[in-house]
Structures are given as C-alpha cells and as structure tokens.
Amino acid sequence: MSRRYDSCTTIFSPEGRLYQVEYAMEAIGNAGSAIGILSKEGVVLVGEKKVTSKLLQTSASTEKMYKIDDHVACAVAGIMSDANILINTARVQAQRYTYAYQEPMPVEQLVQSLCDTKQGYTQFGGLHPFGVSFLFAGWDKNYGFQLYMSDPSGNYSGWKAAAIGSNNQAAQSMPKQDYKDEITREEAVQLALKELSKTMDSTSLTSEKLELAEVFLSNGIVKYQVCSPGALSKLLVKFGVTQPAADAS
Amino acid sequence: MESVFGLVGKDFAIVVADSSAVHSILVHKTNEDKIMLLDSHKLMGASGETGDRAQFTEYIQKNVALYQFRNGIPLTTAAAANFTRGELATALRKNPYMVNIILAGYDKDIGPSVYFIDYIASLHKVDKAAFGYGSYFALSMMDRHYRKDMTVEEAVDLVDKIIMEIRSRLVVAPPNFVIKIVDKDGAREYGLA
C-alpha cells in the first residue's frame, strides 16, 4: 500500500485505486445513516440525525432530507457542507432543464447530471471529492417512482432498497428477506423504520433522532412530505420500534 | 414568397411547404424539401433565409437525436418545441436565425400537436398555423373550413383547397408543394406508401 499515491485525486495508485475517493467514502461511513425503500406507491427515506441537542433550534429546516425539485427529493449522508453545495447544484440543474424544455427533469437524468459533476472532482482540478452519498427519491412519467444511490466516485445505480452512512453494508443486505416487489407504501415505511432501528447504535428510538420523508402521488401530483415529529412518534409506536410514551412519565 | 402551413387532425398532424428554392429572380430548383423529420414522430417545416433554414433545422434535429442517445427516451413534442424556441431566443439578440417554423408531432399519451415558432422566438401551441405570403390565403381558408378532429381525407382536401388558392392568387406562386403527415405510426411524406 503506497502512501505517496493517496494525497492526489488525479492519479491512480499502482493497484488501480483512487485513494481520495475511498477516503471520502470512509468519511461517510462515520456519518448518520439513511435508508430508502421503493414501493409501487412511493418512495420512503429515513435518516438518523446525529445532531440531537435540546439546544438545537428546530425550525422548518431538516438535517438529512432535502427537496431538489417538485418531483425529486434526496437524503444525504456525509459532510453536510459538501452536501449543501451539491444540493444547490442539483437544484440548479433541475431548473435549467425545466427552463429549456418546460417539463420536469427525468429523475435519472438529474442523478446522472449531478454524478457527472462529482466525477469531475475525481479526475481533474486537484480538489478533493465531495464527502457525500445521496439517496435520490423521485417520480417521472417515464419510469414512475425511482430510488437512486450515488457516492463520491460519481457512480450511481437504481435500487429497490438502499442504505448509506454508518453501518450501510449491514443495512444494505437487511431488506433482502423482507422486501417484496408489491410492497405497499405503508409497509415500505415500516420496513424502513425497522431497518434503521437495527442499524442505529442507540437502544431506544425517539422521533428526535430520526427524520422520515416520503415521495408519493396525491391526485396525480407528486408530493414530498417530511413526517412531523408527532406523527413520527406515533409511527414508531405503531410499528413496535420504540417504547410507548406512557413510561416517559 | 415561401409558404409553410400546418394543422391538427383527429389523430394526426399535417405540415405543408412549398418546394421552390428561389434566389432573386432565379428558381434554383422546384423540389426542395423544407420539412425536416426531427425524429420518428416529429416534423419541422421551416421557411426563411435559406442558409439559416438548413443550418438551424439540422442543428435542432441533431440535438433531438443526441437527447435520445444520451437518455434512452425521445423528447416530447412540447419539449422539442420549447428547446427550439430557447435556441432562437438565445441567438436573437446576438446573431438571429431568420427562420419561421411549424413543428408538428405525435406523442403516445397526448396525441397530435402543432407549434407555431416565429423567427423572433414566439411560441404558440395551435390547431392551425401558416407562414409566408401564402399565409394570407392559408389562414383564411383554414378559418373558413377547419374543424377539430378532421379525418385525413378531409384535412388533405382542405390542404388541396389552400394550395389551389395560393397558386391562383399569389403573384409569384410556387408551383409545387410537399405534404408530410405524422401520426401514431410515425412521420412520413403524404402520398408515399
């Protein structure tokens, strides 16, 4: 393992690796996890919040979930400041497409476009790659609901269920037994919450430690909805993922 | 002296253009095809500056093809129309294209559509449209005889009436016209099997 090849993004190591890209993925492996599950009726994204302090001002902003366009949202894992740049880039790309074609950008094209940006940072410029992985959830009229995962290398692929962030390797293989293609929207939410609770370190889950968002169709229009803390608590109890609030007193 | 016009029928759209290539007082050829096939289900009839017409329509055609290669799906007619308008608009205040366009297409879930795009980048989705001196006659005839959901026979009959009017009333009238049609089976020249 040659150390002299790892500080430069623009050269390969003798083993054919780009160390900077791999180190970026290491950084993400320490970040809060996120899981996405695709169903016929929508896509659910759940994320583990790392910053949980009573002093935190919880306003309308979210830590893990972001809306890119009316029909696409994403969950992030990794360095938040890097993520903000890429989210803005994705938003601009989506609007640029709509400006040219007066139609929403197909989800895969948006993911591909952002990944092309990420790839640039692994090949030229001398700047380090973005330390962010994304789960993109969206709907378009070509392929319906879709879930994509992308990483710092600029690779992406479509998934029925995917996980990023800490313990993502374990979380990625978990849904294999429980996932079925005909899964309903509610079952997908349940599966996502269950998987996330298994991968998280904490013993008891509360709605303060999680974020949940869904992309679904309502009256033929794509909706992106972040679950409120109250509703999320109820879901956690309903699916048996946490203790009821009764013993908090 | 060029004429281009188009209209929407029941499950199809038609674009008609004259086929004369004229420079000053000389007729270079009488079988010039001014209606380009943008892709399998789109027609772009154009009139205006000859060089600009060929250059711009080919540019749009190649960009439509590139989109399909890159993304695996074709552009919708509306998307292609808006893209075309955007290109005209961007060039307008620098290096304008002097081309007027009638764009017709067929989309599976929407059906046929016709778009009017003029050289200063106006875009209108319409049932019928016309450019050139022939438009005075074409629009009047269409206003009188056009109905929604015409059959191919009725539409071609109207096209024939328009062509006869242009031939008889326009002082230097083009002798020949090309008619192209687009429907669920694709875009093709009318009259060819």
List the helices and strands and how they pair.
The complex is a heterodimer of chains A (249) and B (193).
Chain A: H1 19-29, E1 34-39, E2 42-48, E3 65-69, E4 72-78, H2 80-101, H3 107-123, E5 132-140, E6 144-150, E7 156-158, E8 161-164, H4 168-173, H5 175-178, H6 185-199, E9 210-218, E10 221-226, H7 229-238
Antiparallel strand pairs in A: 1-2, 1-8, 2-9, 3-4, 4-5, 5-6, 6-7, 9-10
Chain B: E1 4-8, E2 12-18, E3 21-23, E4 26-29, E5 35-39, E6 42-48, H1 50-71, H2 77-92, E7 99-107, E8 111-117, E9 123-126, E10 128-131, H3 134-145, H4 152-169, E11 177-183, E12 186-189
Antiparallel strand pairs in B: 1-2, 1-10, 2-11, 3-4, 5-6, 6-7, 7-8, 8-9, 11-12
Helix pairs in contact in B: 3-4
Task: Report on the architecture of this protein.
The complex is a heterodimer of chains A (249) and B (193). Chain A is an alpha+beta fold. In chain A, 34% of the residues lie in helices and 25% in strands. In chain A, the strands form two sheets. A five-stranded antiparallel sheet of chain A has the order 8-1-2-9-10. A five-stranded antiparallel sheet of chain A has the order 3-4-5-6-7. In chain A, strand 1 and strand 2 form a beta hairpin. In chain A, helix 2 (80-101) packs across helix 3 (107-123). Chain A is globular. The termini of chain A are far apart. The model of chain A is unreliable at 245-249 (pLDDT under 50). By secondary structure, chain B is of the alpha+beta class. In chain B, the strands form three sheets. In chain B, strands 10-1-2-11-12 form a five-stranded antiparallel sheet, covered by helices on one side. In chain B, helix 3 runs antiparallel to helix 4 (152-169). Chain B is globular and about 50 Å long. Chain B starts with a strand and ends with a strand. At the A-B interface, helix 2 of A face helix 2 of B. Chain B: Belongs to the peptidase T1B family. Chain B: Its main location: cytoplasm. Chain B: It is found in: Cytoplasm; Nucleus.
